[in-house]
Design brief:
- With 226 residues, this protein is an alpha+beta fold.
- The chain has helices at 2-9, 13-16, 83-102, 109-113, 195-225, and strands at 20-21, 24-33, 36-44, 49-56, 61-68, 71-74, 128-129, 132-136, 142-143, 148-156, 161-168, 173-180, 183-192.
- The strands form two sheets. Strands 7, 8, 9, 10, 11, 12 and 13 form a seven-stranded antiparallel β-sheet that branches. Strands 1-2-3-4-5-6 form a six-stranded antiparallel β-sheet, with helices on one face.
- A hairpin with a 2-residue loop joins β7 and β8 (132-136).
- The longest helix is centred in the last third of the chain and has 31 residues, at 195-225.
């Protein structure tokens, strides 16, 4: 790792990065974090969004980690083994990636054909349920990895807990995940391929599930105090 750190710290490209892009502010991290070395980040603190470049000692690759609220993933289009390759990719793709992350999204035709962006049910979604706040809506879904888009996210950031609903274009399937104190758990409650059926599931299950998650958060807090 020492050789990688030395190469990164002497990398001229770092000094050429703009201080601000697409509403994000640059931070030269240059710090070890477990098996990774954090190189730099562009962050929008108000929108809880960030794009970070890291070196991973385990895979021996440079990676781009994207975080939106409690949701994190690695953008596979930025994976590369050396600084020369990383510089080429960043020069070609970084600005567009930040623009997309800021909200200037380009949705695939298969996703648009599902009519999620125009889904009338969006207007019925409450801003807050059981102390969880609506963070991502079907009007502004988040593209992640492997053909999946997060179309709904209710989050309690202080408790590091949330419910997210995603749609995968390859499987033509909606599916859900809850995160309790940063630990994700897949759930089958909202599995379906039909928007009408998903609306019915929301009517029936959304409130009770978030209330149950709130109870689990409170229970975990009680265990920590005992």
């Amino acid at each position: 790792m020492k050789e990688i750190i030395a190469q990164v710290n002497e990398w001229p490209f770092l000094r050429q990065l703009p201080a601000d892009q697409a509403g994000f502010s640059l931070s030269l991290d240059l710090a070890e974090d477990g098996v990774q070395y954090n190189v730099f980040s562009y962050r929008n603190a108000e929108e809880l969004r960030s794009f970070s470049v890291v070196y991973d000692r385990a895979t021996r690759d440079y990676l781009a980690r994207v975080a939106v609220g409690l949701n994190e993933f690695y953008d596979v289009s930025f994976i590369c083994p050396d600084l020369a390759s990383l510089e080429r990719i960043l020069t070609a793709k970084l600005e567009d990636a930040l623009v997309e992350l800021s909200g200037g999204r380009q949705y695939e035709s298969v996703f648009r054909a599902k009519k999620i962006l125009e889904w009338p049910y969006c207007e019925r979604l409450a801003d807050e349920v059981a102390g969880f706040h609506l963070f991502i809506t079907p009007r502004q879904p988040l593209k992640t990895v492997n053909g999946s888009y997060i179309i709904l996210d209710y989050s309690d950031f202080a408790a590091a807990s949330n419910l997210s609903i995603s749609y995968n274009i390859y499987r033509d399937e909606f599916f859900g995940q809850v995160r309790l104190r940063q630990t994700p758990h897949m759930i089958g409650t909202f599995d379906t391929r039909d928007l009408g059926e998903l609306a019915a599931k929301f009517d029936r299950e959304l409130g009770p599930l978030l209330a149950d998650l709130r109870g689990r958060i409170s229970h975990s807090e009680g265990e920590n105090l005992s």
